Amino acid sequence: MRETVDLSHASRLVNHGPTVLVSARHEGRRTVMAAAWSMPVEFTPPRIAIVLDKSTTTRELALASGELALSIPCKANADVAYTAGSVHGAGIDKFDAYGIEAFDGPVLGLPLVAGCIAWLECRLIREPRSEEAYDTFFVEVVSAQSDPRVFTHGRWSFREDNTELHTLHHLGAGLFAVPSLTVQARTLDRREP
């Protein structure tokens, strides 16, 4: 299930710190890796910062193409996320090698991981100093989609009846947490002096 997410809401797909699957394609090669360090940095246009280690094939392909995609895995994708983040992609296509299903994104045609709950196609915004010194890349989102069972109208909906669709949050060594409880806050009543 996929529906288009208005780009004005695209940063909400990552603002709560989920693990993301980063994929890239260039000259017939493609790969995917997991990343725990990503965050929105601007709403309009939607821009995201993400850390891509120098040793990754994903970084190599993203730099060569100027593009990358983010797929947001859910509880049901924990094994895919762990494998994508634990196995080096040198010389292999992780999608084929591990049976990770993918589909092409609607704008850039990048490989998006099937079974996830949100997908973003992005163009790199080159910042060589940040890339070299901190492995931090900035991207602009050009397309966003979500699974409406868990994200619709610009909002996440984590409920007891959709726990398999809750986002993953990496704790280390293959251990992930998922949001299992949400709390709706309200503005405090203002007190008069």
Automatic annotation (TrEMBL):
Matches recorded under InterPro entries: Flavin_Rdtase-like_dom, Flavoredoxin, Split_barrel_FMN-bd
Domain of life according to the entry: Bacteria
Cross-referenced PANTHER family: FLAVOREDOXIN, FLAVOREDOXIN-RELATED-RELATED
Lineage, uppermost ranks: Bacteria, Pseudomonadati, Pseudomonadota, Betaproteobacteria, Burkholderiales
Obligatory cofactor(s): FMN
Annotated Flavin reductase like domain residues: 12-158
Protein name: Flavin reductase family protein
Ranges that cross the membrane: none
